[in-house]
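cron nightly-structures :: item 1 of 1
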Amino acid sequence: MQANLQTQSDTSGRLARLGIAVSFVVVALKALAYWRTDSLALYSDALEGIVNVITAVAATVAVHMAGRPADTRHQYGHHKAEYFAAVLEGILIVVAAFTILHDVYDDLNSPHVLISSQTLPGLALNGAATAINAAWGGHLIRRGRDLRAPALVADGWHLWTDVVTSLGVLAGLVLAVLTGWHHLDAILAGLVALYIVWAGWRIIQDSMSSLMDEAVTAEIQRRIQSVISEKGSGAIEAHDIRTRIAGRVSFIEFHLVVPGDMSVARSHQICDRLENALEDAVPGARVVIHVEPHVKAKGELGENGAVII
């Protein structure tokens, strides 16, 4: 299992480093689009692109730290490092949004005129950047889920919020040029900023939940109970099943009740069988089992988290 986790960590690191290069290309295209048009909406889009670069760097650092082995000060490993990067990403997104809102307020009081002759080239540049973000963001989400890398998934979703807002900006700017209503540029930038605030808050909320030792999903919990029921022959029941997620690792612990006269060696064999089965059923599982005599049995299936074997 350790070798598999290290391979996942190495792959995540390569993706995160490549993400930095992609982010630089995208922000350069968006900055050039803003420079050509002087559009506040495109400026807001370019500013989010700068945030993308910062978060790509943060994701790279976090993935590297999460892949480090356990040591004397961090005996359960460094898996939660990726959640800190995701929280940072969410905070930076919100900060960028409020910066945009400040510029929107100034522009509504003193509106500027778009450089209409440069609108089409600017939109083309922004469109190219949006296409790159869409492809790369989708790839990060898929691979991040496969690799159980929260920082990569958060980065991918951030890019997709950028894609959605960019599409809205592109459509709105076309309307602004066609109608001549230049306030629409600032209004679009404001809507982009509000959407960014929502996306940033969602990332922060999800990451904080994981930092607070969130349990595995209900589907995985059912899978754990099923494995214990199927592979725990010789034992009486398992109860007080608890789980928590830390990056790529799912910690599973429970009490296993065995007959009081069962030998230590026999109960250890059952524990080994259960640990191997759970590690196969739940990728990245770390299992701790506390063996108890039959007088500690708690009851029927579902009562007190008990699984009758």
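cron nightly-structures :: done
DSSP finds eight helices and four strands in the chain.
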